[in-house]
Amino acid sequence: MKNQNLKRIKSVAGKLKKASKAHAKQSAVLSKVIKNAKSPKKKGQPAKSKKHSDLYTDENPKGTIKGLKFATVKDAEESVRKIKASGRSHAHKTQAAIAMEQRARAAGKAAPASVYRKFIESQKRKTKKRASGRA
């Protein structure tokens, strides 16, 4: 939520709380909403900042590989196939797999994360092979 909206909600919550006991409950609900409002980046930080990284925010939806999942090993394997067939650059594919591995680990799903890790390691081997071929 934007800061301006949060200020308005806080103001309304305060007024409701003072108005009567009947409104105190509504005020409590609004206060809870304000408390749980999530800001994807720090105050004053511009969009697409190099210092900002959020696992679940897509700051550049144009490059998104859609339909990637990490709930089960089967989902992860299908997602790796989608990444491979996406037609994106080598680096883009690797970055997508890294993000999905981190999401899986954050959700406590070690098995799907290992599927992504296996793909990432294969990408690393390709990178080394390319680098040795150029030198």
Structural descriptors:
135 residues; mainly alpha; 5 helices; elongated
Cα distance spanning the termini: 51 Å
**Count of structural domains:** 2
Largest sheet features = none
Fraction in helix: 55-70%
**Estimated radius of gyration:** 22 Å
Structural class computed from helices and strand pairing: mainly alpha
Shape: elongated
Number of helices: 5
Q: Got a strand count?
A: 0
Averaged pLDDT: 81
Order of H and E elements: HHHHH
How much of the sequence lies in strands comes to under 5%
Instruction: Please mark out the parts with pLDDT under 50 across 5 or more consecutive residues, or reply none.
Output: none
Task: Describe what this molecule looks like in 3D.
The chain is mostly helical. The protein has 2 domains: 34 residues; 73 residues, no CATH class. It has 5 helices and no strands. Helix 1 runs antiparallel to helix 2. It is elongated and about 75 Å long. The termini are far apart. The model has no long low-confidence stretch (mean pLDDT 81).
